[in-house]
Amino acid sequence: MVDIIPAILCVRAKSLEVDSSSGDVRVVRADVICPTIRIFGWSPSDNFQKEDVVQEEMQGDVLHLRIGNKGDGRSSWQFPFWDSGTKMSFELLLPQKEYDALILHISSGSLQTEALEAGILKVNMSSGRLKMENCKAAEISIKASSGHAEIKNASGKLDVESSSRHVEVSLNEIVNVINRILL
């Protein structure tokens, strides 16, 4: 396990955008000052350092974190954990504060979120399983191309769009739910 804390001044970030190209991701709130990425199934080697696996950029008050793909034309399958058969997974530990916007893009792999709070919470997934529990936002938007989406005890206006037609929603209180299944 390796912990990576962004080197840039992240405490001023009002919004967070995370892009993961591959691997399973779990996002939770924790007692941390800055978002911390915990990586399982990988250790720094001579060929790949933390900058090859996690990139960070601050644009205005938005902190952008890219996990698993450097964005330099080198695709994520070229990382050593794919050749060795080791499964890589990430845990994103977030500060207890509420972000204006929390946007999660997952290309391949599962996403599990627990007890997140934001003004706007957006999840975009290409493939894999989504499990969202006890999340609260004024607006929650989920777009899933394929895979299974399970939403439990979400609070806020909920918009779910799925191409695979496999969505489960169970809420204690329904505020405003829009469910679109694309054919």
Describe the overall structure.
The protein has helices spanning 50-53, 80-84; strands at 2-4, 15-20, 24-29, 36-40, 54-59, 62-67, 89-94, 99-108, 111-114, 117-127, 130-133, 136-144, 149-152, 155-162, 167-170, 176-181. Helix content is 5%, strand content 54%. Residues 73-84 have low confidence and may be disordered. The chain is globular. It has one domain (2-181). 30% of the residues are buried. It has two helices and 16 strands. The chain is mainly beta and 183 residues long. An eight-stranded mixed sheet has the order 1-4-7-3-9-11-13-15, with no helix packed on it. The longest helix has 5 residues, at 80-84.
Distance between the amino and carboxyl termini: 41 Å
Overall structural domain count: 1
Low-confidence stretches: 73-84
> Helical element count?
2
Domain DUF4097: 14-176
Protein name: DUF4097 domain-containing protein
Pfam family, one: DUF4097
InterPro entries: Toastrack_DUF4097
